[in-house]
């Protein structure tokens, strides 16, 4: 059942990452991939079969050491990817970039350290050394990162954090219970790994709710941005139309001024010509003077038209 959940979420996370380009989904898919590998490795037939295949190539002792180290390296991988996913999902990369950068740096350092340590322990055939570092270094460091991350999530993140925090806290509690039961024999836990599976299922259920809520937030934010873009385009169109209207108004004023100046000049000329006209004297000169105002009048009328 747990594997079915994880395979489903690998597909869903991959699709959402390709569609939304939301980094949290990419790291959740990577987390689930390594988690599936780990869960399958806990299945005895698969574990024993893999070890037998390696024994053919590397020998029995080397195969045993490599399988033990690989099992813990896979745990380092899926816990690291889960932490990165959590940081992105809680939007700490936006709200507290300095803290986010420090956590990413620590996770990279831990991952690189345990890869190198795993190679070294394989060559010296000492898987116990690797396990000791995992128990006394990796687990305490990851717990120390979990608590301040929860504090910042409560302080900065949106409402979707509630679903995640419940799921993550349940998962951490169940994982610690399984881890303690595996290494503390006095607790007499027959099958402590069952707590780990319970934690995965609970975390997956609450993450599903948180995922749906965050999808709503992402869509709301995109719709808001789209509305702002449309509003901005409308403003640009209004500004452009306003500019056109202002240009037309200026052109009308210019034409009106030209008409006014032209007609005023013509009327002044008519007035001047009429002032030289002698009513009592009928002569060729007076006939020419009478014709000039008529011509000027016709010119003014044609300009107005």
Q: Give the end-to-end Cα distance, rounded to a whole number of Å.
A: 90 Å
Radius of gyration (Å): 42 Å
Total beta strands: 0
Which band does the percent of strand residues land in?
under 5%
Structural class: mainly alpha
Q: What integer is the average pLDDT? A: 76
Tell me the helix content.
Answer: over 70%
What is this structure, in a nutshell?
The protein has 305 residues and is mostly helical.
Question: Explain this structure to me?
Answer:
The protein is mainly alpha-helical and 305 residues long. The protein has one domain (2-227). The chain has ten helices and no strands. The protein has helices at 2-20, 23-41, 44-58, 60-89, 92-95, 97-123, 127-156, 160-183, 193-275, 284-304. Helix 6 runs antiparallel to helix 7 and helix 9 packs antiparallel against helix 10 (284-304). The chain is elongated.
Features of the shown structure:
305 residues; 10 helices; elongated
What's the arrangement of secondary structure elements?
Blueprint: H1 2-20, H2 23-41, H3 44-58, H4 60-89, H5 92-95, H6 97-123, H7 127-156, H8 160-183, H9 193-275, H10 284-304
């Amino acid at each position: 059942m747990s594997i079915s959940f994880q395979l489903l979420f690998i597909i869903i996370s991959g699709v959402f990452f390709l569609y939304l380009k939301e980094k949290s989904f990419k790291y959740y898919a990577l987390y689930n991939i390594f988690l599936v590998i780990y869960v399958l490795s806990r299945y005895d037939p698969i574990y024993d079969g893999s070890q037998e295949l390696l024994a053919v190539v590397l020998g029995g002792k080397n195969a045993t050491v490599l399988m033990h180290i690989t099992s813990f390296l896979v745990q380092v991988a899926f816990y690291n990817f889960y932490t990165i996913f959590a940081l992105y999902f809680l939007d700490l990369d936006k709200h507290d970039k300095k803290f986010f950068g420090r956590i990413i740096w620590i996770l990279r350092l831990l991952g690189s350290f345990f890869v190198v340590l795993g190679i070294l322990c394989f060559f010296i055939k000492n898987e116990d050394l690797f396990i000791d570092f995992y128990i006394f270094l990796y687990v305490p460091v990851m717990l120390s990162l979990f608590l301040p991350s929860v504090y910042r999530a409560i302080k900065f993140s949106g409402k979707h954090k509630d679903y995640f925090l419940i799921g993550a806290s349940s998962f951490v509690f169940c994982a610690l219970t399984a881890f303690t039961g595996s290494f503390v024999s006095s607790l007499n836990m027959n099958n402590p790994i069952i707590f780990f599976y319970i934690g995965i299922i609970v975390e997956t259920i609450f993450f599903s709710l948180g995922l749906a809520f965050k999808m709503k937030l992402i869509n709301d934010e995109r719709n808001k941005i789209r509305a702002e873009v449309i509003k901005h385009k409308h403003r640009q169109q209004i500004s452009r139309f306003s500019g056109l209207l202002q240009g037309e108004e200026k052109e009308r004023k210019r034409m009106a001024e030209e008409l006014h100046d032209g007609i005023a000049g013509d009327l002044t000329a008519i007035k001047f010509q009429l002032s030289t006209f002698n009513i009592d004297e009928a002569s060729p000169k007076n006939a020419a003077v009478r014709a000039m105002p008529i011509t000027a009048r016709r010119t003014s009328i044609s300009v107005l038209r």
